[in-house]
Amino acid sequence: MNNIKIRQASISDKATAVDLDYRLDKDEHIKLKREEKISKAILDGECFLISADDKEVGFVIFDYRFFDQGWIELIIIDEKYRGKGIGTKVFDLICEGCKSDKVFTSTNRSNTQMQRALEKADFSFAGELKGLDEGDPELFYYKRINASEND
């Protein structure tokens, strides 16, 4: 895929983002009240649509609520567009626009596809948190934007 871009979502993009999430996992979308989360993120200027070759293929929710560092709360890419380098490019675009020294994100231990994507995008493992999803710990990752600093 060529020409991968992100742009801040507007309220008119809500249906697109909600549909992308709903189609990916209807049960999780409903259980986690994702429509509300997406709506709030759009209104707060924290939701970005992902396009590849001028087709909307996903969205990302990004903010600075994690210890004032960049935080990728959610990234959704339509399944038929996965494995084409879109996620890696989106991570790069988020990091390029980030106003803090680091970008953090997390995923469940069971989500090996996301773990591989993060490693491919040069994110480093930061640690594990148990207790959020029983039996499926949350794995945290980060990428340093200013590479001259030490950990």
TrEMBL record:
<feature type="domain" description="N-acetyltransferase">
    <location>
        <begin position="4"/>
        <end position="146"/>
    </location>
</feature>
<keyword id="KW-0808">Transferase</keyword>
<dbReference type="InterPro" id="IPR000182">
    <property type="entry name" value="GNAT_dom"/>
</dbReference>
<dbReference type="GO" id="GO:0016747">
    <property type="term" value="F:acyltransferase activity, transferring groups other than amino-acyl groups"/>
</dbReference>
<dbReference type="InterPro" id="IPR016181">
    <property type="entry name" value="Acyl_CoA_acyltransferase"/>
</dbReference>
<protein>
    <submittedName>
        <fullName>Acetyltransferase (GNAT) domain-containing protein</fullName>
    </submittedName>
</protein>
<dbReference type="Pfam" id="PF00583">
    <property type="entry name" value="Acetyltransf_1"/>
</dbReference>
